[in-house]
Amino acid sequence: MPEASSFVLETANQPLQADTISVAPPKAEEVLIEVAACGVCHTDLHVIKDEVAFPKPAVLGHEVSGIVREVGEGVTHVKPGDRVACSFIMPCGRCRHCDKGLEDICENFFNFNRLAGQLYDGSTRLSRNGQDIAMYSMAGHAQHCVVPSRAVFALPEAVNLLDAAVLGCSLFTAYGAVKTVADVQPGETVAVIAAGGVGLSIIHLARAAGARHVIAIDIDDEKLALARELGATEVVNSAEADPVQAVADLLGHGVDAAFEALGSVATVKLAVDILDDGGRAVLAGIAPAGQTMDVDITKVVRRKLRILGSFGAPASTAMPEVIRLAAEGKIALDKLITHRFAFNQTAEAYQLLNDRKIQGRGLIETNPELI
């Protein structure tokens, strides 16, 4: 069983700790990957802060690119040596939801991985001194990881291997929100609340989908400036102006689609309040456990508003699309990735994320020599 350097979450509200773990070989329909890079995502921060329950000790990291080193039985679409990126949702392909094409709500992914930190045989591929270590998705904050094959996608040479890591969550999640759930159409009006990694990706993809107005809303002027670079047609600093009034002044009414990318009571309420009649609010931000919506029920009913949840996307269709967009130069990965860290700076990266010091997406360059 090979060993790999990693960062382990031992207990909640403590920095990730550098350690060496054992990584078991891939089983049937699994792939062993040498990690090139892994994104720094707010969802992992929720786990670190115990705002989302998860077993510990654990290796986090769910936005991965790398090189295939070994494949399990039944894997034919990738082979050792292939450059790949992985979706954070790892569909089993067999549950009742996957059978319907609803891979983004795969029952086995949530029941085995998100609740128990395991893969789909009920065990983890990680251990330390004989003790199991939980896997958050594929556990990408390590030099090697094991990924179910349905979440592994080959990369064309036109896509930078390190930058491709963010395709598997930030862009993947945004694509699901913009295309799969909201189905943004040319000429529509869009607001995006919270211009972090996912919010910026939503802005980028909504503009690419042909939205006439893409209004970025945040309290950080640096993030709003980056939002403009990525396609926002207008920006609103909600610490300085009432965003509902600002949108009404701009458009004469609300927006067709509002995307909430933070996960808070206040921003979810804003997403609903900012809608035009018949509009749709798409909630893509993960909130701490126990948070509930504060919305005017009569307003939702009377104005025929829709409140839609969006968690990732169907991997088999969305990942090939975001990879294609990246290969064609239609996704500005170099602008979305605003902070790059060496592998030994993994814990520091999450502290900076917690302190709101990362404007776009942070990226851990685990093994840049793989390029």
UniProtKB/TrEMBL annotation:
Residues 11-364 form the Enoyl reductase (ER) domain. It holds the Pfam family ADH_N. Keywords: Metal-binding, Oxidoreductase, Zinc. GO terms for molecular function: oxidoreductase activity; zinc ion binding. It comes from the Bacteria. SUPFAM superfamilies: GroES-like, NAD(P)-binding Rossmann-fold domains. SMART domains: PKS_ER. This is Zinc-binding dehydrogenase. It comes from Nesterenkonia salmonea.
